[in-house]
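CORE FACILITY INTAKE
Project code: CF-77B
Contact: R.S. (postdoc)
Sample description: multi-component assembly, two entities in total
Requested service: structural model of the whole complex
Turnaround: standard
Below are the sequence entries exactly as provided by the requester. Do not edit them.
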Amino acid sequence: MHSSTGQWVILAVPVLMVLALATLSWRERRALGPDAPPGFIARNGWPVASFLILAVVLWTVFMIVLPLLSMIDLSFRPRLPPAQWGNARDIYTLDHYRFFLFGSNTSTDSWNVTHLKAFGLTILVSILVTALDFCICYPVAFYMAKVARPARLRLMMLMLIAPYWVNELLRAFAFRLLFSNQGLINRVLMSLGLTDQPVDFIAGDVALYSGLAYAYLLMMMFALYNAIETLDRNLIEAARDLGAPWWHIHAFIVIPHAKPGIGSGATLVFMLTAGSLAAPLILAGPRSLWFTPIVYDRFYQAFNWQQGAAYALILLVACIIFVLGVLKLFRLGLGEIAK
Amino acid sequence: MRADTLRRALVGFYILLFFAYLFGPLVVMGITAFNTPAYPQAWPFEGFTLDWFGKLAGDKDLMLGLRTSLWIGLLVVLVSVPVGLAGALVMTQLQARARSFYYLIVVSPVLTPGVIIGISTVVFWRQATQLTGLRFFYDGTLMTVLAQSSFISAYTMLIFLARLARFDRTLEEAALDLGASRWQVFRDVMLPFMAPSIGSAAVVAFLSSFENYNTTTFSILADKTLTTVLAGRVRQGTTPALSALAVTIIAVTVAGALLYEVAKRREEAKAARRERNALRAESQDMAALPGASDTATQAI
């Protein structure tokens, strides 16, 4: 299929989307009968209504939907010099996805081990980091939501947010200073005589993984805190009076109640970790594997934008699958996640 | 009771440990900013110096990047605050399925990795430039503003939605009944009600833009922001000047947070005093009324 068809699809989708939304809201309003609120324009007046429509269309169409569609489109197009774009050879192809799997556009004999391994490891480590962040945050979030007094709570909130005012790059840099060969940890270890050679934490990915766990801790913390905070304290008291041991209270009362918070925290932390670029650039060793730097190199080292777009789409699909998985696992709606 | 005390001590210890993890790396980095060796080193402490801060101020690229970052942040505020407000207002006017469909679209940037937002934005504007021949939009700074605004508008929208949930529709109806036009209702009822959240949305938008790296690095092309220059510096080699930069950022934010806290305390104290005065005035009025004290005693 020639790539020019794609252009029409890309242009048609936003129009269809706007039409679908307008029809849907019109029908739903009509279904309400006489109780229905006044129509959009009657309700806002012309000046405000046109501002609302203009702003929302600019945002959804030109900043969200069209960019995403053109990235998808590009990922299926062959790599051609700009002069040949749109000519007879510009036909949709799966070349870039084939390359991701097999490391070659033509043969399928061997797997593309480097990229597949980096991708798999990125997903796996992101899941582990998410779980780790949950374990680290849960006790603190519970303490803040149910035990701490208001004055201490405000102090803790401030102390939680403060480190995250510092740029993500500089936070990663701080971990580099801790873990490098001449870093603080190695100096302490050597002066204590525990080791006479510096331990290479960077090549061992210790620095990378602890930096990643640190990087997005706050998302999990606030998601958990907000969810636990809404739990009625009486439920905990009642369980305690009935003789439930403390871990029963957490496993059967607090955690089930906090499920939407766990879901939204997990989604955000996973997405941010899998898509993080700063920590891997700064904390990864020469042999470390992470997917986003590979994507970056497709664009600005290899200048193969088509392939880069394909790789980005693969990452996006993985994130969507994870989000859907979490929704299914926790039986949540999307609305409860993004709060 | 012994077990209870033990558990409390354990929880306290855990929280201390947690904050040590949170602050430890930053404290170490902070010390290296004041230590003389050229390789950032916290211990042993060889001598106090402020040279690294001077090096920082003399770094032309970094200062240029800082200026671009401030501009981008300002533009992102100007785009994402009105867009987020419009997004939130439209959301409150939709029903059931239309609302979930709309929600799915506008919240998707929050759940999309930043690198992908940056990539899709450059790809789209490159394609658009190719098709239309307009070179205007294929500009690093402008694309960065657009790319950042796509998800920062979703943040501001969520802030506005939280505020709108407490909006009393009858205010709007009262204004209309009193003969206000739709535009007057928007200007004199809705906007003043939203004013505090407009302030916080602007702050959130600016800070998210200022510290963004993942999206920016793809969409900035040949231009430079503070974060992209910084990334280059960190990869080149480690120098205490970077620690000095971090210390500066921390100092500015701590000062900002303290000012905010003081302002908030003062505001609260003022509100409390006003309430006390009002109560006292009320009780004096009550006392001034003949027979008021009798009724009060009877009621008791």
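Facility notes:
- Chain B touches chain A through 94 residues (CB under 8 Å).
- DSSP finds twelve helices and no strands in chain B.
Invoice: internal transfer
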